[in-house]
Design brief:
The protein has 398 residues and is α/β, with parallel strands linked by helices. The protein has 11 helices and 12 strands. The chain folds into 2 domains: 2-127, no CATH class; 132-394, Purple Acid Phosphatase, chain A, domain 2 (4-Layer Sandwich).
Length: 398
């Protein structure tokens, strides 16, 4: 199935590249002669530069990588705009409102499409850095000892992807937004990093910012599929360096582990279901299989609230059956840019959860955040970078 969809994507993207390339070549040729054999190699290189950028992750290529990553959404929007304008042109020609074919109008349409795409990408870059705060209120019909009277305020964030695109300045704005909300506890739902720690431009500065996080009940994290310290082409990828980095930043990592917080509720942090290149430990041994939700809650006092922290929102029904009261996830980015949100909505609904927002099960609830930053293209269009504040009210004691 994976091979089928990968082939489908590559063929579709090749078609988009050829269609848009024909339009761009016609635009150039309207003003001056340009040989096709000079144009096409360069244009195809630009179209597929985002793939090349994933292999060349050297620091001195950081700017090239950022520009290359933008090429993918830019080409998608360019194609969509051209398709819309061509559709309008066909309608106007058949209705007799314009001549059957006008090269000048076709070139003008391409120019308009280019302008709109450039404007959209600039907007998407700045919009992605505008971190918003989203609020939810959740009721849990269980007692939580001393927390019952005032409830619990959780600050949830995920998908920072600290690395090539996200550095200290972005982390600073996120930390400020979290601290401003006055949380009792701060939870990271994975993908804190974008892979290798060596890709962080100022690791000590990032660590310093993370240490500024303030919450009386502590700061906890589960790891995501990108939270592996990848070496050469994912050989011997591990989470040891990631966990050590977070520990030095004052963040407790839970990987298929749980903790009784404030003698009030259980916090269960799950190991990610599919870490990239993370099939082995830092010592070279096969990585332990992810425990089931039922295994993690076996033996717990289920009269207490149970909160799960799991990066990917794909196992909600199993966690609900295991006694979860609240499930917190990220991963989807809500598609990050349209029409990606249409695709992720369908995928995670099929998995029994949601790609964003509040999920209501039979006995459990869930919140999926769109993430605090970006992965790949440093743009957001039709989605927001966010931190989430969840106010939980527990049942008062008798």
């Amino acid at each position: 199935m994976w091979l089928f969809w990968s082939s489908f994507f590559l063929l579709g993207y090749a078609g988009i590249s050829v269609y848009t390339g024909i339009k761009v070549l016609a635009l150039f040729r309207f003003f001056f002669p340009l040989k096709a054999y000079l144009f096409w190699p360069l244009y195809i290189l630009i179209c597929y530069s985002f793939i090349l950028a994933t292999f060349f992750r050297y620091d001195w290529l950081r700017l090239f990588r950022q520009v290359a990553m933008i090429s993918f959404p830019a080409l998608v929007y360019f194609f969509m705009t051209l398709l819309l304008l061509d559709g309008m042109g066909v309608f106007l020609r058949f209705s007799g409102r314009i001549p059957q074919f006008s090269p000048a109008l076709s070139v003008a349409g391409t120019g308009i499409a280019l302008f709109l795409v450039i404007f959209t990408m600039v907007y998407g870059i700045f919009h992605a850095r505008n971190v918003r705060t989203v609020h939810y209120q959740v009721g849990i019909d269980k007692e939580a000892a001393a927390l019952a009277e005032n409830g619990l305020r959780i600050a949830l964030l995920s998908d920072l992807h600290i690395g090539q695109s996200v550095g200290r300045k972005w982390v600073l704005s996120i930390v400020d937004a979290i601290n401003k909300s006055g949380p009792d506890i701060i939870l990271f739902a994975g993908d804190i990093f974008d892979g290798g720690l060596n890709e962080i431009k100022d690791p000590e500065g990032v660590k310093e910012e993370l240490r500024r996080l303030k919450a009386p009940l502590g700061v906890y994290a589960s790891l995501g599929n990108h939270d592996v310290d990848r070496l050469a082409f994912n050989v011997m990828a591990s989470t040891g360096g990631i966990a050590a980095f977070l520990q030095e930043a004052g963040i407790v990592t839970l990987q298929d582990e749980l903790e009784l917080v404030a003698d009030g509720f259980y916090l269960v942090g799950r190991r990610d279901t599919s870490p990239i290149g993370g099939s082995r430990t830092e010592t070279g041994e096969p990585r332990p299989d992810r425990k089931s939700a039922a295994e993690l809650t076996s033996g717990l006092d289920k009269s207490r609230p149970i909160i799960f922290l799991d990066h990917q929102p794909i196992d909600f029904p199993a966690m609900e059956a295991a006694g979860a009261d609240l499930i917190l996830s990220g991963h989807s980015h809500k598609g990050q840019f349209f029409p990606g949100n249409v695709i992720t909505a369908r995928l995670f609904k099929k998995a029994g959860a949601v790609h964003y927002g509040h999920w209501q099960g039979q006995s459990a609830q869930g919140v999926v955040t769109s993430g605090a930053a970006v992965w790949g293209p440093p743009v957001r269009i039709g989605t927001n970078s966010e931190v989430v504040v969840i106010d939980i009210l527990f049942r008062a004691g008798n």
